[in-house]
Write the structure tokens for this entry.
Amino acid sequence: MITPAKIQVRFSDLDVLGHVNNTIYLSYFEMARVHYFKELLGEGWDWNKFGIVLAKNEVEYFKSVLLNHEPLITIFTEHIGSKSFTLGYELHVNNVLFAKGKSVQVCFDASIQQSILVPDQMRMQLERIIRE
């Protein structure tokens, strides 16, 4: 199991109401993806040749994250297709669900600017975090 990504709430993340602005959650999810991919694929992964592009994001908000909170984000695989995969996200504060989301990533070779099949090693690692 991968340790959830720990997020530090910055003062600049807050809106005039004193809670994390809705747009910042996508940034938090991105930070969590980086954390998980580092654990799953290592630091030597060739992201230029075997990269991803984001095709879709969804967020559901349940409670407001505040400056003094320490969010933890868990990621799991919801679906793996031939060229894309869907990740699910859960943002918890003190074991309480504050938000959840989904994103669809398309595998992409930046050197030829084309989508590619999900690389075997990536598929195998994504299968490790499937939630059933």
